[in-house]
Amino acid sequence: MAVTLDAAEIERIADAHETARRTTSPIRRVTLEHPDMTIEDAYAVQRAWVARQVADGARVIGHKVGLTSRAMQQAMHIDEPDFGVLLDHMQIPDGGTIRAADHLDPKLEVELAFVLGGGLGGPDVTAADVLAATAYVSPALELIDARSHRRDPVDGVTRTVRDTIADNAANSGVVLGTERVDPTAVDLRWVPAVLSRNGVVEETGVAAGVLGDPVEGVVWLARRLHGFGVDLEPGHIVLAGSFTRPIDCRSGDRFEADFGPHGSITLAVD
Q: Distance between CA atoms of 110 and 242, rounded to whole angstroms?
């Protein structure tokens, strides 16, 4: 698939998403105006939005992988995951607090974060390459948001994967736990997590829910980014994909994600 939108329109759409983020006023889905836009168009919008962030002083610290479960791919009518970019201003400390009013439709997902010690890129990256390049793996939460309506208030239509990709794959924040796991010493497929909100268990899962093995999420990302001429860099964080469904964040909520022997994460919402 090729980019079909012209550069001016790509910039306009990226600006609309940034205005929505800053004003917490969602826009209507991009595909309403551009029903034939391609996946590559959506990534072009994402790159334009990221470029604007970097020009304003932000720093790229990694990437996130989304839509890693077969059920989600079928729901979005695609046959592969998607990805977004992590920026330094998205970092939230373990035990920290976010304000619900600063977001449009915030939700939390449970993930594993691969922190790279070496570079990673190319069309033939393997799981062994990922493990060799990974300094450590940490428990993580991803804060997702929607700068365009998940379901349009006028026509009731849900946004497509192209709308989500244009919205930086819905990424808004990342929380890393303090535990550092040697990825060669643990079978990452069986890392467990229990996500509780206000003391009530909302979600449970194991990391095998990510493409059968979260390492495969990083493999897919490295190969996909290569097509855009981008490599993962030492120090980058890669969120390999969620293995729980997203849980709404409401003012007053207190979250705990328990990863068993691999630590826990807490987050409060004001």
A: 5
